[in-house]
Design brief:
Structural class: mainly alpha
Strand content: under 5%
Order of helices and strands: HHHHHHHHHHH
């Protein structure tokens, strides 16, 4: 049967009542005094005490702040990473820019090449068209266009070295007159008619279709050989040899034969005009060359064009003026 104390604590709480004395682990009189004074941190067994400020925990749980050297190293590393990132970005953008530059340069080069090609194709095509349209053959356009460009180059070089334009123009005028004469004579078949008459008189037994050619080749071949022989003898005044004389004779004969073939054939107006232009383009540089060989080139004037004589003379005068007013040393 339960006693009076059991009735007071029906669940069998082992905690004694208020009249009971202090139990084990209650902290004794010091704990009671702490509770009586209201100390929030009673000195209980097993309770962790906080270390004083400025002292580390005996267990070592608190971390120390990084040193100055470590902080500087961290800042340098961060700055290096930032700089590297900027450099990589600049490289990427530079690669893209260079790609665009290459693309623009390629397209610009292609456009320039097309313009140059058009600039070459237009005059070439024009020359070929004129050769076909005027003279009846593209070959005439090629031949005459090439000679025209060569003549322009020769005249440009001679003009650059100081040959007056009046002499060049005079040579072109004479060459033009020669070309007109050749064109009229060959275009109207005047030489063919003349050789036909001569063949009828000299070689009446030959076929009428061959007479003009035969008489022209025979006559001009002999005449050309004689002219070549005389020219060789005159040119090689003191050093004539049998080979040079024979060469002049044969060369003149071949030239005469070719001229005979050209003049014996009835060419017609278009081909005759083409030969007239050809004669002009051949005679122009030839006449200019003869004029230069006769009159020569003023080398002193050519040198003066590329020599700063006025500057040098002015500099000399200035130096002399300074010497007169600034003695080089004191007079004793």
């Amino acid at each position: 049967m339960a006693t009076g104390s059991d009735a007071t604590n029906p669940i069998g709480d082992p905690t004694p009542g208020a009249a009971a004395g202090p139990t084990r682990g209650s902290g004794g009189p010091a704990a009671g005094a702490a509770r009586a004074s209201g100390d929030p941190t009673p000195d209980l067994p097993g309770a962790a005490s906080n270390p004083p400020a400025g002292e580390s925990s005996p267990s070592g749980g608190a971390s120390h702040p990084p040193s100055l050297r470590a902080q500087i190293a961290a800042v340098i590393a961060a700055a290096r990473r930032l700089l590297t990132a900027h450099i990589e970005l600049a490289r990427a953008e530079a690669g893209e820019i260079m790609g665009e530059v290459g693309r623009v340069a390629m397209l610009g080069g292609l456009a320039l090449a097309m313009v140059l090609l058009a600039g070459v194709l237009l005059p070439v095509g024009l020359v070929l068209f004129l050769g076909e349209w005027i003279f009846g053959s593209i070959g005439w356009g090629v031949l005459l266009g090439s000679l025209l460009l060569a003549d322009i180059a020769i005249v440009a070089v001679l003009g650059a070295v100081g040959v007056p334009g009046s002499r060049l123009g005079r040579a072109f005028l004479f060459a033009l007159l020669m070309g007109v004469a050749v064109g009229v004579v060959l275009g109207l078949d005047l030489t063919n008619r003349a050789w036909t008459l001569a063949g009828d008189a000299v070689l009446p037994s030959l076929d009428p279709g061959v007479r003009p050619l035969a008489i022209a080749v025979l006559s001009l071949g002999i005449l050309g050989g004689i002219i070549g022989l005389l020219a060789t003898i005159r040119a090689g005044s003191g050093a004539r040899t049998a080979g040079s004389v024979a060469g002049g004779l044969i060369g003149g004969a071949i030239g005469g034969v070719l001229l005979g073939v050209l003049t014996a054939v009835a060419l017609g107006p278009r081909v005759g005009a083409a030969f007239g232009v050809l004669a002009t383009l051949i005679a122009w540089p030839a006449l200019v060359g003869l004029d230069v060989a006769r009159a020569g080139i003023d080398m002193d004037a050519l040198k003066a064009r590329f020599y700063p004589g006025q500057t040098i003379e002015t500099t000399k005068e200035t130096i002399e003026w300074v010497r007169q007013r600034t003695p080089l040393g004191r007079k004793s």
